[in-house]
Specification:
Elements: H1 2-32, H2 37-48, H3 61-129
Helix pairs in contact: 1-2, 1-3
């Protein structure tokens, strides 16, 4: 449980930092580039996710410098978030799935002898039902 609490805190902190980065960036691009708030959020998302459509491009030197900062910071935060979520999943969810597969494997091992016995019985039935032809 301490691991889960620590991981949940890391996920929450990273999300808060991403939201703060969005807010600062939206207001920056609105003020220095003259973009609408939605356009700024769209550009930030395209930059952080490394899609970079190119339909919005900073024109001012301040905007270009801030975009460099945004790219390094935003991409890093996104990777931290993805890594933390993956680590959480590996430690908790995958453990539960592994336990379920282990149970299924044990059940299938228990059923194998029954299946082999059924196959043997069918072979015996075939052997007894074959009547030799009289010549």
């Amino acid at each position: 449980m301490p691991y889960e609490r620590n991981t949940t805190r890391n996920i929450a902190m990273t999300i808060i930092l991403i939201i703060a980065l969005y807010m600062v960036s939206i207001f920056f691009y609105h003020k220095f580039e003259g973009w609408e708030y939605l356009d700024a959020a769209y550009f930030i998302t395209a930059s952080i996710t490394t899609i970079g459509y190119g339909d919005f491009v900073p024109k001012t030197d301040e905007g270009k410098l801030f975009t460099i900062f945004l790219a390094f910071t935003g991409i890093s935060l996104a990777f931290i978030l993805i890594t933390t979520i993956a680590s959480y999943r590996e430690k908790t969810i995958d453990k539960h799935i592994e336990d379920k597969f282990s149970l299924l494997k044990k059940l299938s091992i228990l059923q194998r002898p029954v299946e082999k016995e059924k196959k043997r019985n069918k072979e015996r039935e075939k052997a007894f039902t074959k009547i030799p032809k009289a010549e």
